[in-house]
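Hi both,

Apologies for the delay on this - the queue was longer than expected. I finally got the zinc ion-bound model through. Below you'll find the protein sequence and the ligand SMILES exactly as submitted, and right after that the structure tokens for the full complex including the ligand.
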Amino acid sequence: MVTTRDVLEIEIFSALLDAIDRGEYPAGGRLVETEIALRYGVSRTPVRLALKRLETIGGAVRDARNTLIVAALDYDQLGELYDLMEVLEGTAARLAARRASPAEIDVLYEIVDRDADLIQNNVDESLIIDSDKRFHRQLHKASHNRYLLGMLNQMHPALAPLARVSLTAPKRSPQSVCEHSDLLDQIKARDEDAAEHAARKHIRNSYIRRLRTRSHALAENAETLAAELVPTCAHR
Ligand SMILES: [Zn+2]
């Protein structure tokens, strides 16, 4: 039987993921039970359970003082995550090229066009980041494969600490929108190979951007990868 407490726990868990996603709880930031309970206006029990759940999936870890903090991904984890995302997003794009309806493709173009307007109007970067997520979610749906959707949803908790930082590289947004536009052109053309290739490249570029934001110790590696990072289009 599903109790109110279960529902609350899941709601708090999901709210925490979104908050981490929005950077409200940055990697390494403390997750304090009482503060979270106050913030969401609930008792401590569902918060404790939600935090436990977050810890179980690796979204939170304990520091040397046994304080629960938002997990930061180490270098290897980051690479492993992006390797898998490249495969999943590439497959989603391939299937979308095969199965997306014209209406779904139109919706995706609307997102790309709106993003181009946002960038031209120099809006807050966080709006563009939210829009990026919308684009990918819509693309996932357009793949019409519930198992793939399930896998992508499962990746969500692992990706939460990534979202904010990955788009903070200067002038990243125009290129990202450009890549979305390219990808979409391939889906519209029903070219499955090209769509998968474009999606993989987009994810790989995100990875490179991510590496750039890391410490100087990684700079050399990032430079090597960055050599492959070439802007791919002028937006329509
Ligand atoms: Zn994207």
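Main takeaway for now: Strands lie at 60-62, 68-70.

I'll put the files on the shared drive as well.

H.
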